[in-house]
Design a protein that fits this description.
6 copies of one chain form a homohexamer. By secondary structure, the first copy, chain A, is α+β, with helices and mostly antiparallel strands. Helix content of chain A is 21%, strand content 32%. Chains in contact: A-B, A-D, A-F, B-C, B-E, C-D, C-E, C-F, D-F, E-F.
Amino acid sequence: MAASPVSTDVDFSKPGRQVGRLRVPRSRDDSGWGTELIPIVVVANGEGPTILLTAGNHGDEYEGQVTLLDLARTLQPGDVTGRVILLPAMHYPACAAGKRLSPIDGKDFNRCFPGDPFGTFGQVLAHYVDSVLLPMCDFQMDLHSGGTGMDILPSACGHALDDPEMMRRTLDMADAFGAPITMVLVEVNAGPTLLAQAERRGIVALSSELGGGGRLNPENLVITQRGARNVLRHAGVLTGTPQVGPYGPSRRMTIPDLAHYVFAPHDGIWEAADPLGAMVAKGAPAGRLHLTEDPDRHAIPLNYAADGLLWCARFAGRVRAGDPVAVIARDL
Amino acid sequence: MAASPVSTDVDFSKPGRQVGRLRVPRSRDDSGWGTELIPIVVVANGEGPTILLTAGNHGDEYEGQVTLLDLARTLQPGDVTGRVILLPAMHYPACAAGKRLSPIDGKDFNRCFPGDPFGTFGQVLAHYVDSVLLPMCDFQMDLHSGGTGMDILPSACGHALDDPEMMRRTLDMADAFGAPITMVLVEVNAGPTLLAQAERRGIVALSSELGGGGRLNPENLVITQRGARNVLRHAGVLTGTPQVGPYGPSRRMTIPDLAHYVFAPHDGIWEAADPLGAMVAKGAPAGRLHLTEDPDRHAIPLNYAADGLLWCARFAGRVRAGDPVAVIARDL
Amino acid sequence: MAASPVSTDVDFSKPGRQVGRLRVPRSRDDSGWGTELIPIVVVANGEGPTILLTAGNHGDEYEGQVTLLDLARTLQPGDVTGRVILLPAMHYPACAAGKRLSPIDGKDFNRCFPGDPFGTFGQVLAHYVDSVLLPMCDFQMDLHSGGTGMDILPSACGHALDDPEMMRRTLDMADAFGAPITMVLVEVNAGPTLLAQAERRGIVALSSELGGGGRLNPENLVITQRGARNVLRHAGVLTGTPQVGPYGPSRRMTIPDLAHYVFAPHDGIWEAADPLGAMVAKGAPAGRLHLTEDPDRHAIPLNYAADGLLWCARFAGRVRAGDPVAVIARDL
Amino acid sequence: MAASPVSTDVDFSKPGRQVGRLRVPRSRDDSGWGTELIPIVVVANGEGPTILLTAGNHGDEYEGQVTLLDLARTLQPGDVTGRVILLPAMHYPACAAGKRLSPIDGKDFNRCFPGDPFGTFGQVLAHYVDSVLLPMCDFQMDLHSGGTGMDILPSACGHALDDPEMMRRTLDMADAFGAPITMVLVEVNAGPTLLAQAERRGIVALSSELGGGGRLNPENLVITQRGARNVLRHAGVLTGTPQVGPYGPSRRMTIPDLAHYVFAPHDGIWEAADPLGAMVAKGAPAGRLHLTEDPDRHAIPLNYAADGLLWCARFAGRVRAGDPVAVIARDL
Amino acid sequence: MAASPVSTDVDFSKPGRQVGRLRVPRSRDDSGWGTELIPIVVVANGEGPTILLTAGNHGDEYEGQVTLLDLARTLQPGDVTGRVILLPAMHYPACAAGKRLSPIDGKDFNRCFPGDPFGTFGQVLAHYVDSVLLPMCDFQMDLHSGGTGMDILPSACGHALDDPEMMRRTLDMADAFGAPITMVLVEVNAGPTLLAQAERRGIVALSSELGGGGRLNPENLVITQRGARNVLRHAGVLTGTPQVGPYGPSRRMTIPDLAHYVFAPHDGIWEAADPLGAMVAKGAPAGRLHLTEDPDRHAIPLNYAADGLLWCARFAGRVRAGDPVAVIARDL
Amino acid sequence: MAASPVSTDVDFSKPGRQVGRLRVPRSRDDSGWGTELIPIVVVANGEGPTILLTAGNHGDEYEGQVTLLDLARTLQPGDVTGRVILLPAMHYPACAAGKRLSPIDGKDFNRCFPGDPFGTFGQVLAHYVDSVLLPMCDFQMDLHSGGTGMDILPSACGHALDDPEMMRRTLDMADAFGAPITMVLVEVNAGPTLLAQAERRGIVALSSELGGGGRLNPENLVITQRGARNVLRHAGVLTGTPQVGPYGPSRRMTIPDLAHYVFAPHDGIWEAADPLGAMVAKGAPAGRLHLTEDPDRHAIPLNYAADGLLWCARFAGRVRAGDPVAVIARDL
C-alpha cells in the first residue's frame, strides 16, 4: 500500500502542546492542489502510553466534539504523562456541514476504514488515521452519538472480542469511561468502522453513543466530559482514578439479535408508545406509523419482538421504509 | 388573476364525509401532465360555519400532521354542525420528504402566499388555498411547530391586528385553543404567510408553534389534539366548550423587538446556557458558540439583550452565522 | 413592460431566405455576458400573410423538430408568398438535452407565456416570442407530441373559443393540417401556453399531438410533414390546396371533463388493457397497476369512467401517483 | 472477503412460500442505520434444483418485473419441486425510480459484480447476490429489456463459453425459454455483469432482451411470462415441458464484431431508415442524424457496415455522440 | 409594495463609524428563521451628501471588494462630510463562493433589480438596496470587473441618458473616478441592473469594469483605490480634488452596436489574435476557435466586424456557442 | 486484471495518419450502451520509437490541447520515423466542460492511475491508457498547465528517480523540451498520476506546467509548440535537433519541502505581494488575505518561509482555507 498523501504541521515525536492541522488533498476545479484542513491537537510529556480521542466521525454528533474542543483548549503538557492525540472534528467537512455523511464524497466516514490512499476524500483520510495515527496508539476512543435520526441512552460501546484478554481490557476501559451503559456489540457490519479497525490493530478501543437527535444534550455532555477524562486517567495519561457518575457503575448490556430491532415497513410519521429508557415487553405496542398519503388508512401498529430496555429510539418524526424505530437492549 | 389549475374530487357543497385529493399540476420530464396529490378531508353537516385546519405547511413539523390525520380518520358528519376542511399534509411534497422546504421548487411554502396560478408548484398550491379554500372559511388555523432547527414552547400564534374586533375574536379563538402560551406577533415578514393571507381575507385565523427539533413531541401532541377539538368547539362546529389544559389558561405574550433575539455571529456548535422555558435576564450568558475549525480559539460567549421567558431555542447543535439561537418572550 | 433583451441576426423585414439565431442572454459563472443560441429561419417573398411554425417547445417531442428542420433546409423564397418563420428547436436547451423541462431553469416552457423580459431563461424567451414574433403573425402552429411519458393519436389541437369566427378559422386551419383527429380542448390550465397566448393576440393558432414515447414515430412524421405544408398552403403562403391523408378528413373530437381521464392512485408499473386508439367502454378495465414494493399485494385494477376513443395512453412503464394513464376522447 | 452486511427475514432452508425483504444498509443523514428493502420471494418444496430468477437489474425494464411479480403472487409450494428464488425488483431503488442507473450511487448495477461488502450500495447488494444467493443455485436467469434508450427483439442471451458442456446446457436452457431469438454474445465488457458472474460460479445462466423503449410491451410480456415458466419446467422445478411460442423454435444468432454496430458520430435526432426486425444490407442507409443546432447543415446519413437482422435499434429520438443507433445480428 | 423583511443593526441616521450587517431572511431546512449576513459600513459626519459604494455585486470580481474593504477599515468620521455607505461584498453569498451567480437562487444579482420583498434571496436583497438604501443617496457607484470569463480595460461605465443634465453630472463623476476609459453604454438589457435602477431614482450613478479573469489585478487595484477616493472627493464627502492617473484624463468611448461584438459560433478553445487593448481593424482576424472534438476539422477563423479598441476580451480558454470573445470600443 | 472495455477504430499497427476515437463505455439512463468518444490521432511511418503526447488530462489547461490539435492536423506520415500517438483532449468530458474535474465521476483524472476496467469512467479510461497505450511507448509527455486556480512558470516536470540512467534520460528529454525551467519533483502524492504510472512502466516520461489561470497564454503556447516538436526530435521521430528558446537552456530547479509552500489559513481574497517569477526572501511578505465577512478584521499577512523563485502563484482571487497561494522553487 502506498504512503498517505496527507501531511501535517504537528510533530508527533515532540513534547508539549501543539495545535495543528492535517492537510488532506482535495482537488477542486478552482484549486487543483487544494487541501482540506482537519484540526489536530497533540499534548505530550515524558514516557507513557498514547491515546487517540476522536469525535466528529459523523458531523451531526456534538457531545464528543464539544468535549474534545474543551480538552483541546485546556489540556496542558504538565497534566499529561505520555501522549494525547485529539481530533475533535475528525471528519471536518461533515462537521462543518452538521451532517452525518460527507458533503465531499457522500460517504459515511465510519464505513471507510481501513481506507485507501488513492481513494475518495474519506478513504484517504481513513487511511491516514489507520496507517499513521493508529500505529502510535495504545488506546483509542471514538465518540459518537445517535445523530439526527436516533436518540440513544449514553453508553460506551465495544465489540464482543474473541481474545478474552482484549475483551477484559476493553471492558475495563468502558468501566472507566463510566457511562450509564456499556454496550457489548455483536455486529455484522462492523468491518469498515474505525472501532473495528483499531481492534484489528490490537488497540484497546471503544466507541460510544451519547444522545442524538442532532442536538447537544447537556446531561450527556457532562457524561462525555467526565468519561473522556476518565479514560485518560484509566490509560495513565492523567493522574487520578476515574470518577463514577451519579447513576453508579456502568451496566453491561447487549443486543442479542435482529429481533431486538423494530423496523418501519413503510414511509410515514412515527409515533412512539414509549420514551427512550423505558422497559418494554415482547408483544407490547411499540408505536403507530401514520401514513400521510391516505387519511383513510389506519395508522400501522408495530409491536416489540423482544423484552428489554428501549436503548435506542427513532428521534426524527418522519421515517422511511427500512428505518429502525426502536432497538431493545438486554443485560449481558 | 386566472383561475386555479388545481382540481379536486371533493365536492365542497356536499354534506357528509369525503376523503379526496387536490390534484396540483407538476410537469415532469417523464410525465408532462403529471400531478401531485394532496390529501383533503371534508366533513360537513347542516348549516354552520366553515373552518379550515391545516398542517404540514412545513414538512418537518409533526404534531399538527398527526392531530389532523387522527381527526380525519375519526370525525363523522353526525359530530359536526357546519363544515370542517382538513389538510393534514398541506404541502405534501415537503411532508413526504420530512423537510421544511419544498423538494420541488426549493421554496418555503409559508412564504408563497397569496400565490400565483402560473407560478412554481408552491405558488400554484398557495393560490388554490387562497383563492378557493379561504373564501369558504369563517375560521382558519395553520398548525406549525419549530421544525428541525428550533424548539418552541407550545403556543397559539396570532398577529397584532389593527381592527380591535378582529383582534378580540382572534384572541378568543387562541384562548379556546388553550395552549400554555398565546403569542401575539408583531412581524415584519408576515406578508407571504398563510396566516397573514387569511387575515387579509377577514378570516379569524391563528397559527401555532408546538415543539420542534424535527421530532413528534408526545406532550405537545396532547396539547395539539385538545386544541384542535377546542377550536372546533369554539367555532360551534363541534358541541361542547373548549377544555382547559392542566397548566390552566393561556398566557398572552409577545416579542417586542429584535433585542429579544440572540443570533449566532459565526458558524459553530451552540451550547445553550438555559433550557427552553427558563426565565432569563438581560446581560446573562445565553450560551457559548464553539468554533470547530480552530481548537485554539475560545468559544464565543453570547449574552441575552432582554429579560423574559426563553420561548424559542436553537435545537440543532450546528448553527450558521445569522441563525437565531434564542428568542425571548415578554408578557403582553 | 420593458423591451426584450433578446437579439437576432435575422432581419424580419428582408425578403429571401435567412438562417440565423436568436441570442438569448444567459449569464454563466464563466461567461457573464453569455448567450444561448436558438436557430431561426425566415423565408419571405412578396406580399402575403406571416405564419410562424414552432417545434421543440418541449425537447423530447421529435416529429415537429424533424419536419421543421427539413422545411428549413428546403423552403426557398421562390416557393413562398408572404413570410414563413420557423423555429425548429424553439426551446433549444431542452431540445439539446432531449428533455421536456428546461435544463436551465427547470421550467416547462409551455407554462412560461406570456413571459417576462427580466425573468428566468424560459420567461425571457417566451416574452420574445410573444412580444416580437407573435405580433408579426397571421397564423401560428406549435408542433407537439406526447413526450417521453405519453403516446397520443396524431391530432391538431385548438381551444374551444368564444368568438365563433375565430373558432371557425381555427377549425378550418385544423382541417387543412389534416391529422386523423382534430381535438377541441376545453382546458383549465391553458393560460400559460403559447397556443393560448397566440389566441389572446387574435392569431389563428393550433398546437398538435403527434405521437410520443420519446421517439420519432415514422408514420406520424409523414403526417406532420404533410400537415406542415398543408397549413402553409391553407395560409396562402404556399400555392396549392392541402392534401388529405389516406385516413380521410380529420375527425373532430373533444375531452368533455375529468371523468375522461384515468389517473394512477399509487406509484407502480402500468400494464394497460388496451392499445392506443382502442374504443373503450365506461366501467371496463383500463389496466393493472403493479406495486413493486410488495409482491404480496395484488395489482390494483383501474377502470374507465367514460366511453370513447383511447386518445392518449401512458407510454412509460413506471408511473407515479397522480400521473394520467389514459385519456378518452369523444366525438364533438 | 468479509461477510455481507445484508440481512433478510427469509429462511432459504425452509419449505413453503415466503415473501420477505433483503435489508441492505444505507446510511442517510437522517437515519444512520437506515436500510433499503428489496422484495424477495422464495417458494420451496421437497428435493430438487434451485433456480434464481431476477428482474429489475435495470429499473426501466418492465417485462421481467411484471412477470416475476405475477409469479411471486401465484406460485405455490405444491407447484414446485426444489426451490425458486424470485427477485422481481432486484435493484429496487432504480425500479422505484424507473431508471437504469442507481439513484443512490449513480452506478449501472449490472456493472457492479462481483461486488464489495464495504463498497457502494450497488456493490454491497451485488456482493450479497453473488456470495449468498448464487452459491445456492443450479440455474439463474436475469430478465432484461432494452431500457429507455433501445428497442430489442425478444431474445434469450448467453455468452459464448469455452466449456462445451456448459455451452450446451446454456443453449438448452435458452431453447427452453423459447424467445424468438437466442443471442450468443461475444462480449468484451461482460466481466462485471450478473450473467458473467453466474457463469464464473459454474451456474447455467442466461440473461435476456425483451423489448425496450422504457415501456411495457404487451407482446413481449407474453413471451416473458411463457419463457419464465418454461425455464422452471426445463430446470425440473415445475412439471411439464416448455411451450413453444407461435413463432416456433428460437433462432440462434450472434453479433460477430463492432462492424455490426452503427454509432452516432454527433449529438442529434435519429431518424431510422428501417424498423426493428428488418433485414438490412451492408452499405444501405441506416438513417439520418438531424443536427438541431444548425438548420443549414444537412442531416448526416449513416450506413450499415454489415448485413443481417436489425436486432436492436435506437428508440429515444435524441442521441448523443457515441450512442449505438443500430445493432445487426447474424445467424450463428 | 410591501416593506422589506431585511433588518440591520446599523442606524443610518447616526453620525460616526458603524460596522454592521444586513440580515436577509433565508429559510433553510435546519433553520427556518435563518438569515444571511451582509457586511455594511457607514461613516457619517455633519451635513453633506450621501454616497453608496458597492462591490461584490458579482462574487468573482475582486478589485472593488478589496478597495471597499480597505476603505471600510480606514475611513474615519473625521475624514468625512456627509455620509458614506459601503457594501464591500453586497451579494455576500456569491462573494463567499467566488462565483458570479448566486449559490442560493442561481440568479445573476445584477439582473434582480428593482427586486421583490417576497421573491428569491437576490430579489429580496435587491429590493432592500433599492427601496431602503438608494432613496438616501445622492451618488452611487457599483464596482465591477470582467469576472471569470472576460478581461476588460479599466473603465468607469455609465448609460447614455436622455436628460442632458444627468448625463453631464454622470460624466463629471466618471471624469473624477479617473479610469483610463469612460464607457458610455447604450444597453438593451440594462433594465434589471443596479446602475439602471439608481438612474431611475435620479441618482448620479456609475458602474465600472476593472479587469477580470477571476483574479485580483494589481494595476487595476491601484486604479480602483484611487478612483474610489476620487468619487468621494468629487461628491464632496472627502476634501481635496480627484487625482489624475499616470495615463492622464479618462478617454470617453462607446460600443455603438452589436457589430462591435465577436461571438463564438461553436463550443471550443479560443485563441485570440490580439491582446486586450490592441487597436483592431474591421475584417482582420480576431482569432481561431479550436474544435476539440474533431482533430480533422480546421480551427474556425473569426474576424472583427468593426474597427476600434479591443476593450473586452474573452479570458477563459474554453468558450461555448454564444459567448462573446471580443468587444470593440469606439471613441465617443 | 480484466481486459479493457474501451475500443477504438484506430489500428495502432498500421502505418500512415489515422484520426479516430477511443470509445469508452458510459451507461446513461437513456443509453445503456452509450459511449464517450475521445479523439485520438496516430501518425506512423517505418521503424522507430513510439511517443505518446497527451493533453487535456485536466480540461481547463489549454496550451497543450491547442498544441496537440495543431500537431494532429498537420503532422504527416512522411514527417515521421516511428510512431506518434496524440491524445489532444485525453479526458474529453472535462475538456468539453472546461473544468479540471470530471463532470461524469467528479474525479481528478490525474489521480485515477493505474485505473480499473470495472471502475468509474475515469478509472476505465486510465486503465486503457495504462494497459493498452503505455506498453507501446518509449516516450511519454503529458502536457499540463496550472488550471483555473494557479499560474505557473513554463516548465517541464519530472520526478526525482532512483535509477540514475532513467533520471539522466528524463533530464535529457526535459532539456530537449526546452522550457525555461525543468522542475524535478519530489512528490508524496505522485502515485496515482499518469507521469508516475509511465515511470513505473519504465518509459521516459515528463509532464509540464505551462501557465494557468484557466486561459490560453500566448507566450506559453509558443513554448509548448516548440517543446512538443522538440521532444519528437529528441525521440528521433522527427528529424532535426531541438530548438532552444530565446531564454536559453532550461534551468533545473526543485521544491525541496513543504516550507516552500504558502497556504491560506482561511477563506478570503488573496492579494499577492509579488508577481509570478519574482525572487522572494524567507520572512518577506507574501501577501494579504482579506476576510470578506468582517470589515473590522485586518487582512491577514502571510510571509514566505523560504527563499527562492516564485514559481507558482495563486491566480483566482478567492481562496479557501488550505489552498496554496505561493510555491517557491530552488535551483537544483
